[in-house]
Write a structure and sequence with these properties.
CATH superfamily: Rhomboid-like
Distance between the termini: 48 Å
Number of domains: 1
Number of helices: 8
Largest sheet: none
Structural class: mainly alpha
CATH class: Mainly Alpha
Shape: globular
Strand content: under 5%
Radius of gyration: 20 Å
Number of strands: 0
CATH topology: Rhomboid-like fold
Order of helices and strands: HHHHHHHH
Length: about 230
């Protein structure tokens, strides 16, 4: 017999230990897991890095594989935490098998565009680039239009979106100019890659939500730039 409405039955519902979507958790966990094996691979992992000169020489594998390796434990853990934090609202937007594909399409697409943009800005350079920061910044860009939207994509011209985007780009540029961030051990900070990844994420989340989100209304606005007509 069920207790009357409003009466406590003495058995509170159990709360899950981790409320983040499984997809975001798996992405975050995969980063330190891969770095664990990278540490034991001696110098072989350097073949997965990307250098801007690769573009001129017709080598494009690094656009993807560079996301799989990192420069140190602090570096990889920072990216893992950011992926869990900002990947969660993006993962909640997409559902089902197609949603899994959409999530990774956004993530990998952000990483590729970020690395490609960095390569074009520093054309001819042989300095290696590693890390998933560009892809993670794509998730940050996408989440910028989701946080505060109660599960819906906010318009690009929304004040909170514009303010958050400006803040992220300001901090990113400042870190790049100062040249200091924990975990990089004196290596060059690819702030340009972060910017390209962020811009891709904040623009791509609109049309991707139209295509893949399983909700009747995913936009908190009329059609705006970046939001294709229904």
């Amino acid at each position: 017999m069920e207790p009357p409405i409003g009466q406590f039955d003495g058995h509170p519902a159990r709360e899950p230990i981790i409320k983040a979507p499984l997809l975001a958790v798996l992405l975050a966990v995969s980063m330190p897991a891969l770095y664990f094996f990278q540490e034991r691979a001696h110098d072989y992992w350097l073949g997965l890095a990307f250098a801007p000169i690769d573009l001129a020489q017709g080598r494009f594998r690094g656009l993807v594989t560079s996301m799989l390796v990192h420069g140190g434990w602090v570096h990889v853990l920072m990216n893992a935490v950011a992926a869990l934090t900002f990947g969660s609202p993006v993962a909640r937007l997409f559902r089902g098998v197609s949603g899994i594909g959409a999530f990774f399409l956004l993530y990998i697409g952000s990483g590729v565009i970020a690395t490609l943009g960095y390569g074009l800005v520093h054309a001819g350079s042989s300095d290696p680039l590693v890390g998933a920061s560009g892809a993670v910044f794509g998730l940050i860009g996408a989440a910028t239009r989701l946080l505060g939207g109660r599960g819906r994509v906010l318009p690009l011209r929304d004040r909170s979106v514009m303010a958050s985007a400006a803040a992220w780009m300001g901090v990113n540029a400042a870190v790049g100019l100062i040249g200091f961030a924990p975990g990089v051990d004196g290596a060059r900070i690819a702030w340009e890659a972060h910017a390209f990844g962020f811009l891709f994420g904040i623009l791509a989340i609109g049309p991707m939500a139209r295509l893949f989100a399983r909700r009747e209304e995913v936009f908190d606005s009329l059609d705006r730039p970046g939001d294709p007509p229904v």
